[in-house]
Design a protein that fits this description.
The protein is of the alpha+beta class. It has one domain. 23% of the residues lie in helices and 26% in strands. The longest helix is centred in the last third of the chain and has 12 residues, at 55-66. The chain starts with 5 loop residues before the first strand and ends in a 9-residue tail after the last strand.
Length: 88
C-alpha cells in the first residue's frame, strides 16, 4: 500500500454534475508521482473512491506510467449508475 503515492498538483472542480469532456479537462495534468513513491517491480493497483467516467483514474494512471510504473488495474469503492447518459 503506497498511501500518498500521487500528489495533486492543482485544485480541481468537484466532478459532480460535469459531463465526460469537462471531467477529463478538469483532472488532466492534476497529478504527479510523489517523490516518496519508491520504484517497485510489482504492478500498481489504483483505487478510486467513485468510478463514474474513469477520468480521474486515467489522470492518476498517466504520470505513473510515464514514470515507468506498471498499472495492474483500477478498482473503485463505488460505481455511479445513470438512468440515462450524462449530457453535460
Amino acid at each position: 500500500m503506497a498511501e500518498h503515492g500521487l500528489i495533486r498538483t492543482r485544485t480541481t472542480d468537484a466532478m459532480y454534475g460535469l459531463g465526460i469532456k469537462k471531467r477529463q479537462t478538469n483532472v488532466a495534468g492534476a497529478f504527479q508521482v510523489s517523490p516518496n513513491l519508491k520504484m517497485r517491480s510489482s504492478p500498481i493497483l489504483l483505487i478510486d473512491d467513485i468510478y463514474t467516467t474513469g477520468s480521474t483514474a486515467r489522470a492518476a494512471a498517466s504520470p505513473l506510467t510515464k514514470a515507468g510504473y506498471k498499472i495492474a488495474g483500477i478498482t473503485a469503492v463505488a460505481q455511479a449508475v445513470f438512468s440515462s447518459p450524462p449530457n453535460r
